[in-house]
Design a protein that fits this description.
- This protein is an alpha/beta fold.
- The chain has a single domain, classed as Acetylglutamate kinase-like (Carbamate kinase), CATH 3.40.1160.
- It is 38% helix and 19% strand.
- It contains nine helices and eleven strands.
- The strands form two sheets. Strands 4-3-5-2-1-6-10-11-9 form a nine-stranded mixed sheet, with helices on both faces. Strands 7-8 form a two-stranded antiparallel ribbon.
- α2 packs parallel to α9.
- The longest helix has 25 residues.
Length: 244
């Protein structure tokens, strides 16, 4: 499919679990190769692409806290898990011939660049995929919040949030066969309905900055590119007067 992308700069938010594939833990090589190809295909459209990856396939801060590790330490461990995923994605992207930079919110100069907003934007302008790791660098903030914060900072025009379902429903479609899918929903309507799109901090930041979120199925190959070209993929969250 050819066409004009809907946006020229986007941030793709991927869960760590997406990297685990069917094994549910760790990094599945075939899955990460497929995701990397999808990212490259999106960039080949001429779109500037930044990526934020979670770390839930390795460890979550809240899980560590439940195991007796204090929350601040647990969140630091979770941030390090996002760095592992980011380095893995960088390696596979570069094998595909895609110029890539990893920037981290926690200084680890031997592995990656520190996150510097202007440098990140410059990398994007030069056609590099920028992978933003280690969350915000602070405990108690999710990678959803980090993704939205970075999207606002680098002036991305949309956040593409990859999940394991094809959009947002009024109830869990895996449990309720009559669940209704939303093609488009307003920020406040989503909040009032209590839909679990992102944590409230991230979602409020989207609303305050009029930053649309497109929730789509990352497990379907080619969907990142499809979201960029078509308005009928996933669920669009924003303001109804936005130009899709």
């Amino acid at each position: 499919m050819t066409g004009t992308p809907r946006w020229s700069r986007v941030l793709v938010k991927l869960s760590g679990e997406a990297f685990a594939g069917k094994q549910r833990f760790g990094i599945d090589p075939e899955t990460i190769k497929a995701i990397a190809q999808d990212v490259k295909d999106a960039q080949d459209l001429g779109v500037e692409v930044a990526v934020v990856v979670g770390g839930g396939n390795i460890i979550r801060g809240q899980q560590a806290s439940g195991a007796g590790i204090d929350r601040v330490t647990g969140d630091a461990m979770g941030m390090l898990a996002t760095v592992i995923n980011s380095l893995a994605l960088q390696n596979v992207l570069e094998q595909l011939g895609c110029d890539t930079r990893v920037q981290t919110a926690i200084n680890m100069a031997a592995l990656a660049e520190p996150y510097i907003r202007r440098r990140a934007i410059r990398h994007l302008e030069k056609g590099r995929v920028v992978i933003l790791a280690a969350g915000t660098g602070n405990p108690y903030f999710t990678t959803d919040t980090a993704a939205v914060l970075r999207a606002v900072e680098i002036q991305a025009q949309a956040v593409l949030k990859g999940t394991n379902v094809d959009g947002i429903y009024d109830s869990d479609p895996r449990k309720n066969p009559d669940a209704r899918k939303f093609d488009r929903i307003d920020y406040m309507d989503a909040i009032n309905r209590g839909l679990q799109i992102m944590d409230l901090t991230a979602f409020t930041l989207c609303r305050e900055n009029n930053l649309p979120v497109i929730v789509f199925d990352i497990t379907r190959r080619g969907n990142i590119r499809e979201v960029l070209l078509r308005s009928d993929i996933g669920t669009y969250v924003g303001r109804f007067d936005d130009d899709r």
